[in-house]
Amino acid sequence: MIYNHLSKEDCEHFVQHGWLHIENAIAPEYLSWVDNLWVRMGIDPNDKTTWTEEYVKLPRHREVPAEQFAPTAWAKMCEIVGGEDKIDPVRERYYGDQMIINFGREDLVGKTHNPRDLDGWHTDNDWYRQFLDSSGNALTVIFCFTDIPENGGGTVLCEDGMAPLMKHFYDHPEGLDPPFQGIYDYCYTAGNKFATVVGKKGDVFVTHGMLPHSHAPNHLHYARIISNPHVNLSEPYNLNRADGDYTLCEQVVLRALNRTSIPEYKPTRERLAFYPRTAYFKRERVKAELERMVKAAAEDGKPASSVDSIYLRGEAAIREHEKRNGYDKEIGPTGVVTDVLKDTRYVPNSAVHVVV
């Protein structure tokens, strides 16, 4: 592998820790996407009594090609996975304004938390059968739309949780369908190597797709805003390269298992992709958000066409957008989730949403 954008230190840090911090990497013009957040949610930024949802995941209205959204970060991410040609040309190749807001609560101010006590340890696979060599979500990316200070609700990473997680997938070549029950127990009971996302507005954190992470309490009671897209590869990892020239993503897997190659590993069931389980409830928020944005535009004397949303550009544009995000796929074997923090399973009649 030849690295033109990653330094030697970048490579070593990613392989050893499973993540990389890239400062000031979001193109400045897209940081303004947070400006209509309050209209979208129908709440007052200056009145915290209207912040009735502590933790919120919004749908996406605007998106641009990944390399346009964060050019420096994209160049590094391409090198981490072995080159841009290894990346799926359709799935999540655009990044957008699907904000995740951690507001915190007043009663949390001044307190602290123990990472082992967090109740949300997971990895971001909600749309395919997971095997050890699965590279669907090769990278989980955290884009900081606000500063994230200490105790400000930054995502917590369990670095030493990768080894037991990957051992579990090694031991189960039949693969697992999300949600994954019990495979993050190490983070709750024995994890002792944690890192917390602390950064500035515009920073990017690139994490390996098999790095367990969790949302954390926001002890400052402000709006911590991020987005959380992924880099998806076209082919599974190759964990048995004859020349030993593994990508950094593959090196993380091998290091976690203390191996130099894994020639014996073979999935014993078919690979399966389906509608992303944790997207349904976000997509269902679109109509209400559009109504609020159109109303706000009218109050400013502007037409509905002035509202910048993919859902106001016609059915063809909407379908193209939803295909890029997997909304065109069939519902999977474990249904979808209807709540941001609870795995309340639901099987809708169809994966196809009403076009707004």
TrEMBL record:
Instruction: Name the Gene3D superfamilies for this protein.
Output: q2cbj1_9rhob like domain
The lineage's top-level taxon is Eukaryota
Protein name (database record): PhyH-domain-containing protein
Taxonomy of the source species: Eukaryota, Fungi, Dikarya, Basidiomycota, Agaricomycotina
